[in-house]
Design goal:
Blueprint (H helix, E strand, L loop, with lengths): L2 E14 L4 E14 L3 E5 L6 H9 L6 E8 L3 E4 L5 H10 L1 E4 L11 H10 L5 H14 L16 H13 L5 E5 L7 H16 L3 E5 L3 H4 L5 E6 L3 E4 L2
Length: 235
């Protein structure tokens, strides 16, 4: 297998101006991910786990380092230096991100959110509608909610919708930032089933999990991050 992602000397820091404090969130991280792998990352709150994922997704722009991604459209591309247009394309077509929080356009229903994700991949309307209903049913989102606005949903319902919207695209690279944090056991099992399906379909994944034991049998490798300084193999 070839590397789909290679991180070289990634560093990211933040300055809290109100208390004049400098925080090093990631420092000199080197990491590679092979095509088709699922890697789990653990670490204490504030250790830099999410910073690594957000730097890959380019929510954050790292101060130092390179993030090489083997894009289907662009070939090898340095995400830390890619243009906004390139990043927008990759987010729509190749790289997915799931967090604990749902950020959506107002007055957009649950059905529309999931369907739009499928349409962005170039599928036709009929296929998008069928896949949307399958995904909403899989996560047991009450059918009465399908045409409702997510602002009215509970935290667990929002999270299930967020996961459904990202996974339905079957991206080449999927970043999972505590995707099961507030889910009950039954909903976690639903996520686990889909992760296994994505692995079988060739999706590469990096996952941050509070409860890595739950996903342990799916992970090809496990890492631990400590104070943003380095990644240590947990094996």
């Amino acid at each position: 297998m070839d590397n789909i992602l290679t991180i070289e000397n990634l560093s990211k820091s933040f300055i809290l101006h109100n208390i004049n404090k400098h925080i090093k969130a990631a420092n000199g991280i080197n990491f590679s991910l092979k095509d088709g792998e699922f890697v789990g990352i653990t670490g204490k709150s504030g250790s830099g786990k999410s910073t690594v994922l957000k730097s890959i997704y380019r929510t954050y722009a790292p101060q130092e380092g390179n993030i090489w991604y083997d894009s289907k459209k662009f070939g090898p591309i340095n995400l830390s230096q890619a243009s906004e247009r390139e990043i927008i394309y990759l987010r729509k077509h190749e790289i997915g991100y799931v967090s604990q929080f749902l950020s959506v356009m107002p007055r957009t229903t649950a059905r529309q959110l999931v369907k739009q994700s499928i349409l962005e991949m170039g599928h036709n309307d009929r296929f998008a509608e069928e896949e949307t209903e399958k995904m909403l049913e899989h996560f047991e989102l009450d059918q009465e909610l399908w045409d409702s606005y997510p602002a009215t949903f509970s935290g667990g319902e929002k999270l299930r919708l967020n996961i459904a919207r990202a996974m339905v695209k079957r991206p080449r690279l999927l970043l999972l930032d505590e995707p099961t944090a507030s889910l009950d056991h039954a909903s976690k099992l639903k996520v686990k089933v889909l992760i296994q399906q994505l692995i079988n379909g060739g999706t590469t994944m990096i996952g941050i999990f509070h409860d890595l034991e739950f996903m342990k049998d799916l992970c090809h490798r496990e890492y631990h991050i400590h104070n943003g300084e380095f990644l240590i193999s947990a094996n």
